[in-house]
């Protein structure tokens, strides 16, 4: 608490572009999986975001919205390529900006991380089939031509322009979790020998072009955030393979990219991560895992602290007001990124700010009751379970933490077909 007894979390924050957010709650992106085959937003999006906006968060980031409807990352993604869904987008944005909340659209292209059940023709910085167990769930991608890269840059800008027109009050570019921009940044995925591959200056070129085009599309006074991995390349395996001389998209490169984005006028960096050995959402054991892990990426955020002046949102593992205040006090983050707890307690910000609630949101252990099924569907089980909770809120119901894992899997199949159970992320990314 500060001298005036206002918790840090309740204080407004003014971003470099001049926009002010009313408090430090940053609802991180969660794919709602609420769009139909037409990839259009629905009444359920409107209801869900109205509930969240009334729940008191300063910023609501939408689930990832795709720039190309033929290239989806997950079943149920919204895609925005043109003005055809402008009316529903307007209603979504209006709902998400009630109660003084900001509502920012997260914009994404999945690249090769587009499951074969929904996309037989994915694109990537370089060709080549995925090796290992996960290979059969993803079609072999085609390497993008320079012309196609320019087209995708243009698409990011178009989606951002439409988001602004519809009334969203900011955008977040998704450069993390193994999707296309992350693939360009990663030397594992990007083996190009042209101006988009090679050293980090060149691997980051695609991200910088996307950022500049988006900034140009929305103007200087509109919040543009970037979600970036602290590092993403398999660590120990590769160090061993290369005799100890690992040089991937590591923390040093990530900080360099952040500094470049700061110079280019980014308003906020959303720090995330995920490696082969440590996927972001590691298990389905809920609070047990949370207590073991604490707040994610804290050490990295400490390293970043002295290097950046642009605001940071640290996302992952925040479950109680004490940890939030500590992180803000320490100055390792300016916004508190929070995702899964808000699918269970949508008005958590209000409870903490207004009611001074000092409990902890315990995420349940999501289980089907059958060990083999839990093992087989681990990541998908958790994702489907949280999608089911968002679906409930979207239908005007309360979240229900007692729902079992089997019901979540049945829900996913019922809504999106059996393909919903294929992994949506390569191992190591979430
Ligand atoms: C159901 C679900 C969907 C998600 N979808 C996205 C997404 O669209 N974009 C994104 O950047 N992160 C996504 N994430 C990751 C979250 O934004 C967040 O980084 C992660 O859940 C850790 O934060 P938490 O511990 O507060 O949940 C998703 C997570 C879940 C559980």
From TrEMBL:
Protein name: NADH:flavin oxidoreductase/NADH oxidase family protein
Keyword NAD in annotation: no
UniProt keyword GTP-binding, yes or no: no
SUPFAM superfamilies registered for this protein in UniProt: FMN-linked oxidoreductases (SSF51395)
Native organism: Bifidobacterium vespertilionis
Pfam families: Oxidored_FMN (PF00724)
Gene Ontology MF terms in the entry: FMN binding; oxidoreductase activity
NADH:flavin oxidoreductase/NADH oxidase N-terminal domain ranges (all copies): 11-356
Keywords: Flavoprotein, Oxidoreductase
InterPro entries attached to this UniProt entry: Aldolase_TIM, NADH_flavin_oxidoreductase, OxRdtase_FMN_N
């Amino acid at each position: 608490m500060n001298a005036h007894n206002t918790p840090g979390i309740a204080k407004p924050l003014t971003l470099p572009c001049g926009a002010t957010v009313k408090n430090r709650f940053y609802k991180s992106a969660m794919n709602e999986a609420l769009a139909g085959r037409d990839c259009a937003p629905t009444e359920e999006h409107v209801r869900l975001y109205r509930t969240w906006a009334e729940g008191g968060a300063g910023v609501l980031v939408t689930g990832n919205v795709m720039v190309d409807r033929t290239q989806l990352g997950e079943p149920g993604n919204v895609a925005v390529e043109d003005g055809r869904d402008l009316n529903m987008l307007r209603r979504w944005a209006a709902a998400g900006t009630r109660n003084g909340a900001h509502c920012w659209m997260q914009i994404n292209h999945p690249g090769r991380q587009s499951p074969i059940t929904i996309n037989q023709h994915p694109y990537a910085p370089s060709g080549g089939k995925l090796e290992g167990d996960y290979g059969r769930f993803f079609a072999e991608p085609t390497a993008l031509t320079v012309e196609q890269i320019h087209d995708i840059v243009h698409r990011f800008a178009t989606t951002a322009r439409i988001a602004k027109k519809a009334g969203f009050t900011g955008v977040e570019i998704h450069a993390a979790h193994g999707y296309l921009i992350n693939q360009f940044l990663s030397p594992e995925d990007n083996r190009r020998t042209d101006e988009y591959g090679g050293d980090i200056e060149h691997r980051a070129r695609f991200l910088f072009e996307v950022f500049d085009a988006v900034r140009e599309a929305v103007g200087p006074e509109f919040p543009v955030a970037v979600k970036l991995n602290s590092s993403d390349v398999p660590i120990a395996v590769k160090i061993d393979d290369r005799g100890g001389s690992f040089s991937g998209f590591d923390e040093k490169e990530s900080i360099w990219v952040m500094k470049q984005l700061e110079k280019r006028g980014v308003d906020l960096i959303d720090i995330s991560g995920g490696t082969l050995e440590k996927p972001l959402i590691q298990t389905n054991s809920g609070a047990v895992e949370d207590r073991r892990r604490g707040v994610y990426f804290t050490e990295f955020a400490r390293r970043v602290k002295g290097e950046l002046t642009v605001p940071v949102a640290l996302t992952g593992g925040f479950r109680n007001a004490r940890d939030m205040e500590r992180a803000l006090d320490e100055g390792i983050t300016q916004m508190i990124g929070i995702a899964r707890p808000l699918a269970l307690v949508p008005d958590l910000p209000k409870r903490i700010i207004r009611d001074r609630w000092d409990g902890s949101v315990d995420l349940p252990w999501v289980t089907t009751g059958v060990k083999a099924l839990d093992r087989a569907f681990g990541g998908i089980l958790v994702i489907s379970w949280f999608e089911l909770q968002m679906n409930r809120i979207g239908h005007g119901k309360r979240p229900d933490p007692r729902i079992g894992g089997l019901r979540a899997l049945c829900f996913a199949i019922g809504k999106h077909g059996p393909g919903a159970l294929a992994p949506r992320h390569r191992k190591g990314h979430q």
